[in-house]
Request: fold
Amino acid sequence: MKIKNLGSDIADGKSMTVVLNQLDKANCSKAPLNTEDKVKRAEEMIANSQNMKPDAVPYTASGKDISKGNTNVNTEFVANVFNTKHGLELDPEDLPDFAGLGCFDETGSREEQAFRYWINSLELEDTDLVDNLYGACSDGKILLRVCDKIKPGCVDWPATVGFKDKGSKIPSVRNPFDVAANCNQAFLACEKVIGKPLHGLNGIDIQNCDLGGDAKAVKIQRKNLLAMVWQLVRQHALQILGNKSEADVLAWANE
Reply:
């Protein structure tokens, strides 16, 4: 059974009965599949979710609610199942090494890890997997690729350095001034993607994000880069949702 939406497609309780059984075979049987009445079957499926170990799925809807096929109600139920037990656990030994680049390295702050994984998920052209957000972004090249991926055409490629495939006038980076040029272009591209000026920030914040120094200096350097990348992540998420605004998302969540 293929699921195309989280409303009507799971209203009969069959799909979620199978999902719960996959997540916890010992406590969530497939018995509800033998029940003819749709509402009763959904009730039995919810009862199964209450038996899940080590934690029960938070009770948010009745079988009657599920059977109506309301997208918001059923999505909330699925989200609660996922949050309770998603079944995505992997043995660290089973994770691919990706040539030792350590893309699954758990060091760094949660923000750094999340943004690093996000960049790797974009599958950027001519770019190695990012194993250190700050080191990778400090020359501006990664951010230029990211911006172009999210909003093609936002980068002034002839003004960049070292992008032969994109038409850079200067074929390779020769000195710190060329690095600064790329960082400045990356900053301008970020503003175009976000659609508004980033007051208090500029290209030098990208170039200096991995300078090091005392704890206070490092915190400031990294905070500025994280602020920029967060805005790119936010814009990309809204784009995936269909170029929605935050107001659209809030209105949908409050329905």
Q: What stands out?
A: Confidence is low (pLDDT under 50) at residues 98-103. Residues 215-240 form the longest helix (26 residues). The chain has two domains: 8-84, 92-247. The chain has eleven helices and no strands.
